[in-house]
Structures are given as structure tokens and as C-alpha cells.
Design goal:
With 280 residues, the protein is α/β, with parallel strands linked by helices. It has eleven helices and eight strands. Strands 1-2-3-4-5-6-7-8 form an eight-stranded parallel beta barrel, surrounded by four helices. α2 links the parallel β2 and β3. The longest helix is centred in the N-terminal third of the chain and has 14 residues.
Length: 280
């Protein structure tokens, strides 16, 4: 199945008490899907999944599946460095109605190549939905080179990779490629890839949609958005994008420790980029 081209890794809104704000989540999902987004990736790193309880995580997946705008795909992030937990989360997200599963490379315990293969084999047995591998060595300290990705593509249901290692960007036999960083989106589209799992689409979604719909203008649009991409990397994601949403009048609350809100200098960088892009 097609998961869509512009997939937004949605933030998790919190209320003043630090609890998940379900209404704000549904409202934001609706806004995104009328501003260029084809699908929503729920409870990824941008959604602060490391600080969500299992109950909160699965509730957000259920909420996304039940409240999705018509035609929207839902990709549930269910990865873990504990295979048993990843399997349980994958089973329950599948039961909740997710269209696909995003599964990050096991982090911290650093399995070897055979261990990675065994990990994804077990996850593949837990779902009948497409699995999107997630290669992000900057966070997990383990890279999946393209030859290994091609091997993993032989596992049933493993159909895509979210590639967040810019140095590895290339076609991979058996896998559809999604950009895992906003600054890879144009390159993935140019090479005939599937699209991107994006963060900047929270605030410049229509412009990123134009990058899909207007290939003749893609390079120019990308250049105009580079300051936004850079600003949303001024500190750890999702700190900047939550600040940007608040500046746009779409507040989604604070962050859970150990993440803290953007400071004055960081907010100034973000504000300047948004003003330059014409969205403030």
C-alpha cells in the first residue's frame, strides 16, 4: 500500500499539568492533514515517545486511528531495544488499526548483525502491516549500511526504511526510501523515493507539499526552506518545533524532562526563520 509522500512525525501535546492533551492532538492532526500532510507518524521521537507510558503511547495510536481525517494513513512507532516489548507494541498497534509500523534500530544494547536480523524477524511475525525500518545512528549509535538494509528487506512485511543517515542515501533493493531528515526530502524525491517522515511539515506543510507537486520548482522551494530546516535543528528535536508551533498560534504545551523548552536565543533563531519563510 502507499503510505503517502508527506508524512508528519507529530508532536505530542501536553496540558498545563504535563498530561497528554488529547483534544490538542486531534486538532493538530486535523490541521496537518489540511496543510499538506498525507499521513501521521504517531509516538516517534518527535512525539517524545521515551517519556510516554505504554498506556499513553497506545492510547495515542488508538486516538489517531479513530480520529484520522479521511484518506489519512497512520504509522505507529513501536520500536524498542527490547524485542519482546517491540513485539507487544507492534501487535497492539496493529490491533488498533495502524496502517504501518515504524521500528527503530535497537539502541544502547547494540546488537550485532545477526541480532538485528533476529529482532526484525520477530517483529515481522507480530503484524500483517508494512514495517518501516528506521536508521538513525545519531540517536542509537548503530548504523544499518545499505547492504544490511537489503538483507532486512527479505523479511516478510519489511517494505520501507526511514533513512536518517545522509551519508547512506541511495536506492536499496526491496525497500522504499523515506527521508528521515527534512533536508533529505528533496533528494529522496529526486531519486524517485517514497517521500519523507518530516518535522518541518508542522509549520511549512504547504511548501513541502509543493516540493512534491512542483518538481520543476523543487530546488528553489528547498533553498527557501533551508533556514527553517536549520532552525528546527538549533537544539534537540522536538524542542524547536514545539516552540515554532506556539509562535504560529498553535500551542502544544511544554516538554517532558529531560527535555526543556527553548531558551531566548533559540527562540530568536526559530522566529527569524519562520518570519523569513513568511509563516509568521
Amino acid at each position: 500500500m502507499s503510505l503517502g509522500t508527506v508524512l508528519t512525525a507529530i508532536v505530542t501535546p501536553f496540558d498545563d499539568r504535563g498530561a497528554v492533551d488529547e483534544k490538542a492532538f486531534v486538532d493538530l492532526m486535523g490541521y496537518l492533514c489540511t496543510h499538506g500532510t498525507d499521513g501521521i507518524v504517531v509516538c516517534g521521537t518527535t512525539g517524545e515517545s521515551p517519556t510516554l507510558s505504554t498506556e499513553e503511547h497506545l492510547r495515542l495510536v488508538e486516538l489517531a486511528c479513530s480520529e484520522r481525517p479521511a484518506g489519512t494513513t497512520i504509522v505507529a512507532s513501536t520500536g524498542s531495544n527490547d524485542t519482546r516489548h517491540a513485539v507487544e507494541m507492534t501487535e497492539r498497534a496493529t490491533e488498533a488499526g495502524a496502517d504501518a509500523i515504524l521500528s527503530v534500530t535497537p539502541y544502547y544494547n547494540r546488537p550485532n548483525r545477526r541480532g538485528v536480523h533476529a529482532h526484525y524477524t520477530e517483529i515481522s511475525l507480530a503484524t500483517d502491516k508494512p514495517i518501516v525500518l528506521y536508521n538513525i545512528p545519531s540517536r542509537v549509535s548503530l548504523d544499518l549500511p545499505n547492504d544490511q538494509l537489503a538483507e532486512l528487506a527479505q523479511i516478510e512485511h519489511v517494505e520501507y526504511v526511514k533513512q536518517a543517515n545522509n551519508a547512506n542515501l541511495a536506492p536499496v533493493d526491496g525497500l522504499g526510501i523515506y527521508a528521515g531528515n527534512d533536508d533529505l526530502f528533496a533528494s529522496v524525491l529526486d531519486m524517485g523515493g517514497c517521500g519523507g517522515i518530516l518535522v518541518a511539515s508542522h509549520v511549512v506543510g504547504p511548501q513541502m507539499r509543493r516540493m512534491v507537486d512542483e518538481p520543476e520548482n523543487r530546488a528553489e522551494i528547498e533553498a527557501s526552506l533551508k533556514p527553517v530546516f536549520d532552525a528546527l535543528g538549533v537544539t534537540t528535536n522536538p524542542i524547536p518545533v514545539k516552540a515554532a508551533l506556539a509562535m504560529e498560534g498553535r500551542p502544544v504545551g511544554g516538554l517532558r524532562l529531560p527535555l526543556v523548552e527553548a531558551d531566548d536565543a533559540e527562540r530568536e533563531v526559530i522566529r527569524a526563520a519562520l518570519q523569513g519563510a513568511g509563516v509568521l
